[in-house]
Amino acid sequence: MAGIGPAPILFNEFFQMFMRCMPPNGWPVNSKIGVFFFIVSHVCNLAHFTLAVGNSGGPDSTCLLFLLNKLLTDLRSKAMARQSIPTSVVSLSVNHNLQETSQSMAARSAANAAAMGVEHLTLDIPWGTPPFSAKPVAGQPMEQVAREARYHVIFDGMARTGAHSVAFGHHADDQVETSLMRLARGTTELGAGGMRRCRRWGMGTGDLEGGLGWVGHHGLNRWIMRPLLEVRKDRILATCEEHQLDYVNDPTNFQPEITLRNAIRQMLTLQEEGKDMSALSGLPQHISGSLDKIKIAAADLQETTMDLEGGLHQLHGAVKVLSSRLEDVDNEVTFHLKNLTLPSPPSTLILSSHALPTIVDPTVRLAFVLRVMRYVSFHPWGSLRADGNRRRTSIQRIIDTLWQSDGAPSFTAGGGVLWQPAIFSAKRRLRVGTQCLGRQLQPGERFAWMASRLPAVPYYILDTATLSSKLDVDITERLAIAMSRDDDSLEVLFDCRFLVRFDLSQIPEKLVGALRKYQETGVNVRIKPHTKYYWPKVVLRKPSYPDTTYATLMDDGQIDTFGHAPWVTMEYIRLLDAT
């Protein structure tokens, strides 16, 4: 009697998977919906959200697109349509133009979406057109280049279709591969937990506005979700067969010499089938070397046993333990941040020193420090640079100093973050830095640590120092163009930390007049930092004259517009969230 094969994914089962991927604060509203329609939808308790699906034409994304479309179609016809969940789906496929099958796979993606009645958009990567590099050629490492280009155009596709979330078809087998790939890069056990079911897009991997991978503050309200992350590949294939879904297999997925992920997939398949590993001989050195690193790192894991020769079932269990551990650590860090954080000046974080020893677990300490760094860093939120590139020695130095050295001097250990000793009192002014060293505490005072932006130059020479274009931002042309279009407002991200919004209907008359003639007079409007915390201020600069300040952020978080109408707001937008 033949064995029972893998079961297709049931719709009720998929609904539970889908709901576990919901962003923490609920689904964002479709940005293409007008204000009137938005108000009506809320009055009538109806939600209208668009969800994008990354569609490669392969079995994983085809299965996901089918299940999501079927689920949301069914919910629209039931009372559950009144719940706050997406009500429409858009299919996004990326044509990399890197292989002979690129066109046919893009065509299959479009055909599958059309067969399901789903709106579809094919996104071509314009290699060689800024910000994209020249097309990679055979022999060049293309995995990271292609990934960055792919994500860049997907985000653009989300913006064009009004989707604030995108679903990818990553599954449990992909999760194992991701965990092993991260081990090859020297990740911690947190990284070995793999991909999250739901995470923010973040500000991107780029560092320059308009550059490849850069999305800025818009990425803080965009989400990536992976509903199939706990499902094995064989069940996805069974679902495609059950519902007669057409798909194509990307032939490059089975070529181990192209990417490390392919090599890991081939290695696990050979082990699962009990075949000889000689097929992996002759791999490029950077790939074969990474496979060796994986074996060493997997053996050193503390939270679970990860036996690469124990088969996929054992690896799935190990990665599931690590993923669950990651969620527990996230929750514990959130709890400690709420209890340890003291009232802090804008853009900083003051942590009570005497309460830090309550965090005993080394992994929780690590995650705690990374969360704080991400919050105060000037590097793009969500990037590795904001985490100090997760250099173990640097992070451990921070942990050792914070947990073991009350009254230690100020220091930095990466991530663009300055750590300073502080003395906090609810009734006295905050003391920070050298004035805390050797000082006896007075009644009501306590030792603390302040995390803040690492200064580029001392704050007392900010007005005279030559600063980079990231800190001395000329917004003249952007203001002039926005005004010429009769825009209501303009948003500018400053230092990857503050979102400065200009109400153009309230802009002071003197600035309006200056902007009308800026090309003739050479005047310009700029955002610059002030105070030791590098808060933003808006100034008018005239040749041969001192800058005139029109708006500044004050220590109470309010905006001083120097007698003018409240035409500027300055919001610190970095997040303490885990995702």
Features:
alpha+beta; 34% helix; 579 residues
Backbone structural class: alpha+beta
User: Quick one: how many beta strands?
Assistant: 20
What can be said about the biggest beta sheet? 6 strands, mixed
Helices, by number, come to 15
Give the mean pLDDT: 90
DSSP helix fraction: 25-40%
Spatial arrangement of strands, main beta sheet: 3-2-1-4-6-5
Distance, first to last CA: 48 Å
Low-confidence stretches: 31-47
Radius of gyration: 26 Å
InterPro entries: Rossmann-like_a/b/a_fold (IPR014729), TilS/TtcA_N (IPR011063), tRNA_Ile_lys_synt (IPR012094), tRNA_Ile_lys_synt_N (IPR012795)
Catalytic activity: cytidine(34) in tRNA(Ile2) + L-lysine + ATP = lysidine(34) in tRNA(Ile2) + AMP + diphosphate + H(+)
Keywords: ATP-binding, Ligase, Nucleotide-binding, tRNA processing
Pfam families: ATP_bind_3 (PF01171)
Q: If you had to describe this structure to a student in words, what would you say it looks like?
A:
- The chain is of the alpha+beta class.
- Helices cover 34% and strands 17% of the residues.
- A six-stranded mixed β-sheet has the order 3-2-1-4-6-5, with helices on both faces. Strands 7, 8, 9, 10, 11 and 12 form a six-stranded antiparallel β-sheet that branches.
- Strand 18 (548-553) and strand 19 (559-560) form a beta hairpin.
- The radius of gyration is 26 Å and the shape is globular.
- Mean pLDDT is 90; it is low at 31-47.
